[in-house]
C-alpha cells in the first residue's frame, strides 16, 4: 500500500464493528478503510522518530501487515489493552526494526550520523527524538538500537493521536454545521485570525464570529468525547 494513495475517511472507522471485519483478511473494503484512517498517523510518528521518508513508509506498511497478522488473536478490551496502545506497540516495533536495518554491525555505509540527523530535524522544526543517541565511545554515530521503552516515542504518539482525533472530530462537525459557521470557526480558532479580520473577510459581524466559535466549539468537544470512548 502506498500512503500517497490514501484518502481521509468521512468518519473515524475504528470501532468494534470494523475490528470484527478486519478478522477477515479478505475484507478489502474494511482494510482499505482502516488504512485510509490510520496511515497518516503512523507515518507522521515514524518520521518524527527519526526515520527517513522511505523508512517511514516501510514502517507504515509493516505495521499494517502486523495488524493483519495479529487480528485473529486480538481482543478489543480497553480495560486490559486499548486499541491505541496496541497499535502504538506495533508501530514502535517496526520503527525499531527500521533502525536495526539501518545500523547493522559493520555496515559502514548504513550508519547514521547524529549531527546530520539533528540538523535535518531542526530544519523541519521537529524536536530531536530521544530514540537518536550515539553509541558508547562514538558520539557521532548511532550504534545502538532505540530504546523501545523511550518516553519520547510515547510523547510523539500521544501528540499525533490527539491531532488524529481532532481531525476526525472536525470531519464529523462539518456535517452538522453550515459551511459559513465552520469557516468562521476555522479562521478564528484553528488559524488564529483576529476577530476583526475574520469579520471583514467573511462579511459578518463580530457577534457572529463569537457565536460560531461557541456553537461549533461545543460540537467539537462533544465529538471528541465520543471518539475517545470509541477508540481509546
Explain how this protein is built.
This protein is an all-alpha fold. The protein has two domains: 3-146, RNA polymerase sigma factor, region 2, helix turn helix motif (Rna Polymerase Sigma Factor, Chain: A), CATH 1.10.1740; 174-231, Orthogonal Bundle (Arc Repressor Mutant, subunit A), CATH 1.10.10. The chain is 63% helix and 0% strand. The protein has helices spanning 16-22, 28-48, 53-70, 83-102, 114-124, 151-173, 179-190, 195-202, 206-231. Helix 7 (179-190) packs across helix 9 (206-231). The protein starts with 15 loop residues before the first helix and ends with a helix. The relative contact order is 0.11. The model is unreliable at 1-14 and 107-146 (pLDDT under 50).
Fold blueprint:
Elements (H helix, E strand, L loop, with lengths): L15 H7 L5 H21 L4 H18 L12 H20 L11 H11 L26 H23 L5 H12 L4 H8 L3 H26 L1
Helix pairs in contact: 2-3, 2-6, 3-4, 6-9, 7-8, 7-9, 8-9
Key phrases:
232 residues; mainly alpha; Rna Polymerase Sigma Factor, Chain: A; Arc Repressor Mutant, subunit A; 9 helices; 0% strand
Helical segment tally?
Answer: 9
Q: SSE order in H/E notation? A: HHHHHHHHH
CATH superfamily of the largest domain: RNA polymerase sigma factor, region 2, helix turn helix motif
How many domain modules? Answer: 2
Rg, Cα atoms, Å: 21 Å
**CA-based shape:** elongated
Q: What is the highest CATH level, the class of the largest domain?
A: Mainly Alpha
Instruction: Specify the biggest β-sheet.
Output: none
CATH architecture of the largest domain: Orthogonal Bundle
Structural class given helices, strands, pairing? mainly alpha
The CATH topology of the largest domain turns out to be Rna Polymerase Sigma Factor, Chain: A
**First-last Cα distance:** 26 Å
Assembly form of the protein? single chain
The level of helicity is 55-70%
Strand content: under 5%
Mean pLDDT: 74
Number of strand segments: 0
Q: Unreliable stretches, pLDDT < 50, 5 or more residues?
A: 1-14, 107-146
Amino acid at each position: 500500500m502506498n500512503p500517497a494513495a490514501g484518502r481521509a475517511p468521512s468518519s473515524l472507522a475504528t470501532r468494534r464493528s470494523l475490528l470484527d471485519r478486519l478478522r477477515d483478511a479478505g475484507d478489502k473494503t474494511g482494510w482499505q478503510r482502516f488504512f485510509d484512517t490510520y496511515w497518516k498517523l503512523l507515518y507522521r510518528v515514524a518520521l518524527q522518530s527519526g526515520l527517513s521518508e522511505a523508512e517511514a513508509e516501510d514502517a507504515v506498511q509493516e505495521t499494517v501487515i502486523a495488524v493483519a497478522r495479529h487480528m485473529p488473536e486480538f481482543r478489543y478490551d480497553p480495560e486490559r489493552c486499548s486499541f491505541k496502545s496496541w497499535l502504538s506497540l506495533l508501530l514502535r516495533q517496526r520503527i525499531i526494526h527500521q533502525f536495526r536495518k539501518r545500523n547493522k554491525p559493520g555496515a559502514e555505509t548504513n550508519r547514521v550520523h547524529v549531527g546530520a540527523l539533528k540538523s535535518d530535524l531542526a530544519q523541519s522544526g521537529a524536536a530531536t527524538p530521544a530514540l537518536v543517541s550515539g553509541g558508547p565511545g562514538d558520539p557521532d554515530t548511532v550504534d545502538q538500537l532505540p530504546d523501545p521503552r523511550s518516553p519520547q516515542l510515547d510523547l510523539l504518539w500521544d501528540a499525533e493521536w490527539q491531532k488524529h482525533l481532532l481531525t476526525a472530530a472536525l470531519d464529523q462537525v462539518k456535517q452538522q454545521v453550515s459551511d459559513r459557521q465552520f469557516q468562521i470557526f476555522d479562521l478564528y480558532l484553528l488559524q488564529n485570525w483576529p476577530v476583526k479580520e475574520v469579520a471583514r473577510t467573511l462579511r459578518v459581524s463580530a457577534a457572529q464570529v463569537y457565536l460560531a466559535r461557541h456553537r461549533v466549539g461545543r460540537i467539537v468537544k462533544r465529538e471528541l468525547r465520543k471518539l475517545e470512548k470509541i477508540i481509546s
